[in-house]
Amino acid sequence: MSVATVDEVPETPAARRGLRERFLFPLILIGISTLFALVVAEIALRIMGLGFGHSPLLPDPVFHHVHPRDYHFRLTTPTTKEIVDHDVYYDANGEVADPNGPHVPASPKYRVALLGDSFMEGNQVLWAEAIGGRLTLSGGDTTQVRNFGVSSYSPIFYRLQWKKDVADFHPTHVFALMYNNDVRDDTVYGKLAKRDAAGKVIAVPGPSNALIPRLMRKSYVLRFAEMMRLKLTWATIHRGRLQRIVGGEVEENPVIPPATAEYMRDLARDVEASGAKFVLLAVPSKYRMYNPAAESGPEYSDRWRAWAAQNGVTFVDLVAPFKATKGGGKQLFFVHDSHWNAGGHALAAETIRANYPELFGARPSRPQ
């Protein structure tokens, strides 16, 4: 018994052209239009000077991201006139250094290592105005200072830095500066971390494809999109909570979790076991400085002061001198940025110098 079938109509060249015209050509047109819009947006953002988050960082298999080595660049922050354009230099080790030349005493009595994130890195101001530059100049021929600060680093990295780089420097003193986004960064990087059998972090691998980070650094559009993504993310996370907005960012005040506390205990133990002195500091709350009646209770710096007391770690307080200076009407943070301005860096460096005059007894020749 035969089964009736519908006669198949052979596909003709005309039919294929019709299919392309209905589907393929519109897709091509959309792609070209999108590319054109992105190019126009890129040009417009560059003309307006609206660049966001430029930072020359390279992916790294151990430290997630690092400074390029022996690298000069001109830092520009077009979103605010407060941060003036200036030269930044990373030396042969990828450390923040004086663009005008090295400062290495012939026979230093003391060797100081500085650990921290963008506050310790200090790229928002001239090298000689930043905490690292000021301490280097104050050290004179007595103290050699190396600044290991890197933007977006947090405690999960500091012991890695100690084991991989800092210990070989044989420092006599190690100063670590904490900031309120450390806990969030530790949580993010902790998910990427590789650990040994004892659960200790041995690496935080960075992205394997370096093309995307390079594009993110060079493209104004992509950096703008990333900024908007972060703002939307934080708006969602902090919905219904007290918003501590400083310099356009949410200032955090987290409790120190066990993981972050453990990273710092391990670091302090290793530093002290080497014979070096470990000193902890924390950036004061900008929000509280300018909104003193807004809230009470411990701020982030207070939490690290308590942790230091419990763990036998030396803590140098920056809150008291910052509040005293703010009472005198002096600005210590940029108005439209969360970082210290030159005055904040000067006060932090002077507070350290006052506590350790034997290390930083020389008066810096530039700037005062």
At a glance:
The protein is built from twelve helices and 14 strands. It has 368 residues and is of the alpha/beta class.
Notes on the protein architecture:
Strand 1 (58-60) and strand 2 form a beta hairpin. The protein is globular and about 90 Å long. It contains 12 helices and 14 strands. The chain starts with 12 loop residues before the first helix and ends in a 13-residue tail after the last helix. The strands form 5 sheets. Strands 7-6-8-13-14 form a 5-stranded parallel beta sheet, with helices on both faces. With 368 residues, it is α/β, with parallel strands linked by helices. It has helices spanning 13-48, 118-121, 131-139, 155-166, 182-190, 211-218, 220-237, 258-273, 286-290, 300-310, 319-327, 342-355; strands spanning 58-60, 64-66, 71-75, 86-90, 96-97, 110-115, 143-147, 173-178, 194-195, 201-203, 245-246, 249-250, 277-282, 314-315. It has 2 domains: 19-48; 58-355, Rossmann fold (3-Layer(aba) Sandwich), CATH 3.40.50. Mean pLDDT is 84; it is low at 237-243.
Topology:
Blueprint (H helix, E strand, L loop, with lengths): L12 H36 L9 E3 L3 E3 L4 E5 L10 E5 L5 E2 L12 E6 L2 H4 L9 H9 L3 E5 L7 H12 L6 E6 L3 H9 L3 E2 L5 E3 L7 H8 L1 H18 L7 E2 L2 E2 L7 H16 L3 E6 L3 H5 L9 H11 L3 E2 L3 H9 L14 H14 L13
Parallel strand pairs: 6-7, 6-8, 8-13, 13-14
Antiparallel strand pairs: 1-2, 3-4, 4-5, 9-10, 11-12
Key traits:
Rossmann fold, 368 residues, five-stranded parallel sheet, alpha/beta, 14% strand
